[in-house]
C-alpha cells in the first residue's frame, strides 16, 4: 500500500506554534515548551551511524539543531529520487542557516557504504555539512525508523524486523529531539508546509 496520499501533519495553528507527537498515531499535543509534561515525552533515542564522509554521527551531532529526517536508498528507482529532490529544496532554503540540518538514513546499509553515499551526494548536489547521509547496522536503522521516528505512519501494515522499511515521509525534529511534524516528502505542498513549519519552530528559540 502506498502512503503517497499522506497529508502533512504539523501545521501550527495555536499562537503560531507546532504540536508535539509521541506515538505512531501522530495525535497532536499542544504543549508549552516549558511544561514539565515534556520531561517524560517521547524523544528520538540514542544512535550511532556513519556519514558519507566516514564520520561517526550520534544524537549528539544534532545537539542544538532542528533537523528533518527521512529513509531512502541510493539504488531506489521509485519514490527516492523525488524525495531527494524535495529534500534538496529544503537544503537550499536553509543553506546558510546553521540551526538546520538534514539526515537521510539508508535502508540498504550493506550496499550503501560511506563511499557509495558520498558518490550519491556528489551526484545530487548534496552539501555534506548540511545534509548527512547515514549508513550503519540495518537492525538499528530499522528500529530507529519504526520506533524512534514512526516513519511508516499510515502504511496500514504491521511489519516485523525482517520486513523492508520504505516510506515517503519526512519528519521534523526540534532541538530537544521531540517530533514536531510529519510530511509527505513526495508532495510539493507538504514540502512547502514543512519549510514554513521550520521557520515557525525557529521562533520558539528566539
From TrEMBL:
Q: Name one GO molecular function term.
A: metal ion binding
- What is the source species? Sediminitomix flava
Name of this chain's protein:
Protein SCO1/2
Record keywords: Ion transport included? Answer: no
Q: Name one Pfam family in it.
A: SCO1-SenC
Q: Which UniProt keywords apply?
A: Copper, Disulfide bond, Metal-binding
Which family is this protein grouped under?
Answer: Belongs to the SCO1/2 family.
* Annotated Cu cation binding sites: 76, 80, 166
**Paired cysteines (S-S):** 76-80
- Keyword Disulfide bond part of the UniProt annotation: yes
Amino acid at each position: 500500500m502506498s502512503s503517497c496520499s499522506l497529508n502533512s501533519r504539523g501545521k501550527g495553528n495555536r499562537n503560531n506554534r507546532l504540536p508535539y507527537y509521541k506515538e505512531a498515531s501522530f495525535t497532536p499535543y499542544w504543549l508549552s515548551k516549558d511544561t514539565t509534561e515534556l520531561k517524560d515525552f517521547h524523544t528520538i533515542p540514542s544512535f550511532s551511524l556513519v556519514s558519507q564522509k566516514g564520520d561517526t554521527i550520534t544524537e549528539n551531532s544534532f545537539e542544538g539543531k532542528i533537523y528533518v529526517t527521512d529513509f531512502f536508498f541510493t539504488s531506489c528507482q521509485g519514490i527516492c529520487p523525488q524525495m531527494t529532490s524535495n529534500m534538496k529544496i529544503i537544503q537550499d532554503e536553509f543553506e546558510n542557516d546553521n540551526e538546520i540540518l538534514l539526515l537521510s538514513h539508508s535502508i540498504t546499509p550493506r550496499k550503501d557504504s560511506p563511499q557509495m553515499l558520498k558518490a550519491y551526494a556528489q551526484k545530487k548536489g548534496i552539501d555534506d555539512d548540511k545534509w548527512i547521509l547515514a549508513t550503519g547496522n540495518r537492525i538499528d536503522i530499522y528500529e530507529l525508523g519504526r520506533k524512534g521516528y514512526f516513519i511508516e505512519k499510515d502504511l496500514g501494515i504491521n511489519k516485523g524486523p525482517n520486513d523492508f522499511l520504505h516510506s515517503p515521509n519526512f519528519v521534523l525534529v526540534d532541538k530537544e529531539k521531540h517530533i514536531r511534524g510529519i510530511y509527505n516528502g513526495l508532495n510539493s505542498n507538504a514540502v512547502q508546509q514543512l519549510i514554513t513549519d521550520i521557520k515557525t519552530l525557529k521562533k520558539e528559540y528566539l
